[in-house]
């Protein structure tokens, strides 16, 4: 996952922002768009990793339908993946199609 600087002071993301309940241990948030080919592969990778780790949820957000949140979080391209800890704080942020091993490593920081 090519990392970007974390957002310091970013507010917590919860069910109101995500549209669903976050994971008990961590949440993989994916910002996608309808015609984004790498988004499809990213979805599969994140779903697989979430299924492997108990208490981890994968949430996909359509960037075009959630422009206010996209602007607030400074999402500039799809796919963008945010890794949230149990409290909903962003602990990792990456753009582009991630490798499974990188997602697992990022989750390690969120659930530690």
TrEMBL record:
CDD domains: TRX_family (cd02947). SUPFAM superfamilies: Thioredoxin-like. Residues 24-99 form the Thioredoxin domain. This is Thiol reductase thioredoxin. It comes from Streptomyces finlayi. The lineage of its organism: Bacteria, Bacillati, Actinomycetota, Actinomycetes, Kitasatosporales.
């Amino acid at each position: 996952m090519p990392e970007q600087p974390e957002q310091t002071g970013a507010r917590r993301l919860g069910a109101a922002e995500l549209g669903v309940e976050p994971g008990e241990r961590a949440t993989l948030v994916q910002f996608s768009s309808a015609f984004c080919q790498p988004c499809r592969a990213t979805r599969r990778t994140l779903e697989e990793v979430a299924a492997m780790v108990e208490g981890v949820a994968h949430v996909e957000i359509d960037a075009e339908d959630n422009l206010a949140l996209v602007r607030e979080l400074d999402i500039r391209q799809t796919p963008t993946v945010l890794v949230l800890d149990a409290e909903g704080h962003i602990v990792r942020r990456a753009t582009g199609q991630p490798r499974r091993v990188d997602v697992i490593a990022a989750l390690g920081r969120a659930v530690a």
